[in-house]
Design a protein that fits this description.
76 residues; mainly alpha; 2 helices; 0% strand; elongated
């Protein structure tokens, strides 16, 4: 059982790493010094955009990672 949980932890951690690396930064950097506001896509695409899919994948894999770690700690 601990081997299966260890594999789940490893796979979830890889998914988290890849999904975080692929996501674009939400910070505008030095472009915000002039006070202009970047275009907002509030309500656009309702969860079907690549950005929101990556955020959902990151969240789900983080929950799986944490639950698997708790289960693994409970076994040992």
């Amino acid at each position: 059982m601990s081997t299966v949980l260890s594999i789940i932890v490893a796979l979830a951690s890889l998914v988290i790493i890849v999904s975080v690396v692929v996501q674009e930064s939400e910070q505008a950097g030095l472009g915000t010094l002039d006070g202009s506001v970047a275009d907002s896509s509030w309500g656009a695409n309702r969860g079907t955009s690549k950005k929101q899919m990556l955020q959902r994948i990151t969240t789900i894999s983080a929950v799986v990672f944490i639950l698997a770690l708790i289960a693994l700690a409970a076994i040992h």
